[in-house]
Amino acid sequence: MGTGQQVHAQQKHSKEQPDKYDLCIIGAGPAGIILALEYARTNPVKQVVLVEFGSKRQGRTNRLDDSIEIRNTLNHHAPYDCTNKGMGGSSATWGGRCVMYDEIDFSDRPVLNEGCTWPPGIWEEVKKFRQQAAGYFECGRPLFNLNEMQGIEVRPIAEKFKKNDILEDTVVERWSMPTRFGKRYAKEMAGITNLHIMQGCEARNFTPPDKQGAVAGLYVQTGSHREELVMIKAAQFVLAAGAQESTRLLLRNTLLFRNLECTPPALGRYYQGHLSGKIASVRFTGDPGKTDYGFLRDLDGTYLRRRFQFSTSFLKANNLLNTAFWLDNPLYYDPQHRSGAMSFMYLAMLMPILGKKLAPPAIAHSITNGKKTGIGKHLLNILRDLPGSLFIPASIFFRRYCLKRKLPGVFLYSPQNRYALHFHAEQVPYSGNRMKLAGDGETLQISYGLTTPDIDSIIQLHKELDLQLRAMGCGELEYWFPPATLPDAIRNMSKDGLHQCGTTRMAGTPENGVVDANLKLWGTSNIYVCSSSVFPTSGQANPTFLLGVFAVRLAAHLAKGDKVNRPAEQLVNQ
Q1: Buried b (16+ CB within 10 A) or exposed e, 70-85
Q2: Is the dihedral of CA 249, 252, 253, 257 positive or negative?
Q3: CB 66: neighbour CB atoms within 10 A?
Q4: How confident is the model at residue 421 (pLDDT cuts 50, 70, 90)?
């Protein structure tokens, strides 16, 4: 398993390297960087090392993503669309949407089949760390309810809308700059003398835990050709390499669980994301000028956006999955929208070089649907709407790419007061959705699909939304597909792999989960996982912000543990 040599190669900084670190963090995505900064800055006498597989010299491909096998390419994006290697991780192509989980996400319900294994009290506790996390994301005040925001006029999302089972002011998206964590925090990390960064290193194997569960070291490989294994010694280790790589590392290192009766059965299982797409438009009956279809601005300029959501009581009473809806543009690739600006942006997205600069692959696919269709009709739309066909995209381009706080997205006004309705739905924790190692012990095989309860919940919530909008005289839904074809339509359009949850889930016992309430790996005393893979449920929210909250919380927990275990004379002298 290598020589046990202490690693000093591939360092980004010329700092003196200790023989043993106090904390070793594996993975330099948002979670790893937040944890490293928060812990190193508040514990200046502690030595921290941040280990990242990617490097500045990396090519377009890498051996980790090349050794991932997606079993269902219809519903799961390709590996290179899901993650990024290098400093900042997936924030390199992250849109910047910050959304908080809801209280219902921490409550078990029959539809989840006992899959909600969050420990009791965790929801109230994690909320205490939202302010610090929001600072790292630069998304303003950590408030996600319009009614809590002073200085913002709260009005119905559309004229004649009346709050009942449908909520349209209690779930709000906050948008970061967006923060590209690697670039944004490079200078801060370089200036912290007790923070060491190693790039181009793949975490491979842990040393076996002793009888108390303590692990002494981690073997890593450096370089692109799998050079000799070298060891990093540390008092504490945190896996923050994203769901895929954190899970793969644990699947390769089941010796970490040798103090348990068996490897936790949940390891690699209950893989979840979100079902997402559009099956209907909503047509409001009131004044189009009174519809909040686009972005709001907070007092500090942070962009906000409203979502529809059903109340906790309604979801529980009807045993439905937590789902958000938001107003969206029609399908860009369909020229029937007759919008010159949309046609211009669609054609720009199809251009090989320009399209890649305008949006990440997964987002670009959601706009083009991988289709080149109706080019002539799109050109007619552009000509018909001149000069707006060019002026509107130019204005959007300036606000989206030339300002410090960039316009997060593009949502166009509808004079007809008709908008596509985008759904973003929770998924049932299903053990058949999983990650496992192939027979070679290296290839990560991902099985991911949609269950009938996932799809049925979406259809039922659309029906309820339509009924309640009609009852209040506010509007109605206009379906894009015949009722009998809705399940197939949802199954064919929904594609995730970007919001990876569940494979190392948190639970109160190793029989039900992989980590405990403090993110510590069951069977060990000094290995932690800080990844959205610890989330037992996916909720309606994108997981990145909550993951940042957990990273801040973990930094505080590790620091508290240090003080508990430190000799009394050191505490007095601190």
Answers
A1: beeeebbbebbbbbbb
A2: positive
A3: 10
A4: very high
pTM, two decimals, is 0.90
Name the residue with higher pLDDT: 56 or 114. Answer: 114
Do β-strands 230-239 and 21-26 pair in parallel, antiparallel, or remain unpaired? parallel
pLDDT given at position 171: 83
- Please name which of 341, 333, 330, 329 lies closest in space to residue 395, comparing C-alpha atoms: 341
Instruction: Give the whole-angstrom CA distance, residue 498 versus residue 200.
Output: 23
Around Cβ 233, how many Cβ atoms within 10 Å? 18
- H or E segment at 304? strand 303-306
Instruction: Identify whether the C-beta of residue 139 lies closer than 8 Å to the C-beta of residue 174.
Output: yes
Asked whether the beta carbons of 205 and 216 are under 8 A apart, the reply is no
Residue 244 C-alpha from the chain's centroid: 13
Extended strands (E) in 137-249: 166-167, 172-175, 195-199, 201-206, 217-222, 230-239
Residues of the chain with CATH 3.50.50.60: 21-60+88-136+180-271+500-566
For 89-99, what is each residue's pLDDT tens digit? Answer: 999 988 899 99
Tally of helices (H runs) and strands (E runs) in the chain: 18, 20
pLDDT at 564: 45
CATH class of 21-60+88-136+180-271+500-566: alpha beta
**pLDDT value at position 363?**
64
The answer for residues whose C-beta is within 8 angstroms of residue 566's C-beta and 6 or more apart is none
Percent over 90 (pLDDT), the chain = 73
Side chain identity at residue 163, one-letter code: K
Q: Cα separations (Å) of 560 from 96, 218, 537?
A: 31, 23, 28
DSSP-assigned states of every residue in 162-180:
--SSEESSS-EEEE-S---
